[in-house]
Amino acid sequence: MVLTIRYFAGAKAAAGVGDEQLTLPPESTVDDVLQLVRDRHGERLARVLTASSLLLDGIAVRDTRTPVAGGVELDVLPPFAGG
């Protein structure tokens, strides 16, 4: 199955890309996706992920054991500064 992960702000800078397509085995979870991108992009992105909010097809993910399906988007939203 294929999932699109989109990175915003500091996550985009840490990953070096704005988005990417990931091919995952069936029955993958958000945890599996996060581990794959940590392995792919290294410690800099791993640090950003610890403080980031996640949206799976626009819905906030609170439990990273949440299953993912093909064709969905996972957004990585690091904390934003501003007012």
From TrEMBL:
Extract the Pfam families matched here.
ThiS
Which superkingdom, per the lineage? Answer: Bacteria
Give the species this sequence originates from: Kutzneria kofuensis
InterPro entries of this UniProt entry?
Answer: Beta-grasp_dom_sf, Mopterin_synth/thiamin_S_b, ThiS/MoaD-like
List, alphabetically, the SUPFAM superfamilies matched.
MoaD/ThiS (SSF54285)
What is this protein's name? Molybdopterin converting factor small subunit
